[in-house]
Amino acid sequence: MTVFQVFHAVGEKPVKSYIRPTSLAALAIAFAAPASAQDLRASLAEDMPDLMELYRDLHANPELSFEEYKTSAKLAKRMRALGFEVTEGVGKTGVVSVMRNGDGPTVLLRADMDGLPVVEQTGLPFASKVMATPASGVTTGVMHACGHDTHMTGFIGAAQLLAERKDEWQGTLVMVLQPAEEAGGGARAMLADGLYTRFPKPDYAIAFHDAAADKPAGSIGISPGYALANVDSVNITVKGVGGHGAYPHTTKDPIVLASAIVMRLQTLVSRELSPLEPGVVTVGSFLAGAKHNIISNEARMQLTVRSYSDESRKLLLDGIARIARGEAVAAGMPENLMPVVEVQEDFTPSTYNDPDFAEQLLASFADRFGADRVGTQPPVMGGEDFSEYRRADPDNIKSVIFWVSGTPDHMLRALKEEGKPLPSLHSPFWAPDAEKVVATGAEALAGAALELMPRSGG
Q: Which fold has domain 232-343?
């Protein structure tokens, strides 16, 4: 995940702007008899000391993608104690907890569990000292630098609130602890392992993510429509004929050809993609040669490609392959030396927040937390595999992921008074105001579930 950008507070526009005439009926049905904010908040306040102890434990003991064995076991035990039917090992290390409570909608709440290969530098007394060796083969520190520890803790807080209030809601609650969000394959692995066949398929799917935002900690932002991007990783191997750097005419220089490809790739977004369609083609790595006076046989590039729609994604990926081949032809490369373009399979599809559902949550959250804490925010080009839960059945599942600012007061003051930039998500210095993120996330998840599953006659 990447840091989410500035979002606009509802206070800058009347809250009623989110309640369109066409959606009033839907609002009345989906959000009838909202649970008392004071009631939830009072219960949550009693739970917070234990939740913060859990947060510190999770923060100090992160695990990498698909290695969340201790984390998942620890949280599964808590879910069983709350009365959920718990299944472990879904999608390798995922946990699915189900609570059936009569006829009604099925609501899925999700939290991600994995940490990142980052050496923590926050200075927190409970900072991670964990070391591990990821797939790269390089031993490194491990850190919850993306805030998944706050997601899990808020998730447990919401589970406790909902388990205590079974007499206030009616339906089926499916709570998913997902592995490997950072690797982009955790949700896909759980779905492939029968998430929607072995367990109830949701009508609604909801998640939250902490954010390094220029808003006070505990502020909520939602992007109706596209919220996060398609994320593709592309490898290009540019072939050539190497030789002595003093006699370049005897070679076919792959570095010159690869450089031409890099420059031409920039025209995909500037000249082929509609100006109204966002897109990114970034060459993040360019490797070739090992000595000053030797022209290598090969150059290798690694690209990240970002888009929102499937059509834009196809245009960019097809264009990359076409440009690589076209530049090679222009350079006089024979067929056996054409570049090899490989699109990696760990594609993360764009995350789409159903607009009507997003507006319903905006109105509900504004009512619950106050207009000054809730607002819309622009979409970002980061990726999130929460998208997979809706994409598996887009005609029947409505989903929303929302952001909770975790920016501590001292960081916000330094930003506004000194222009000191905030550490981003994935930074070794990111230390959110965890208490506010957890409290806000837990109440928002539980409140939304209660309002989506009102008890009949309530």
A: Alpha-Beta Plaits (3.30.70)
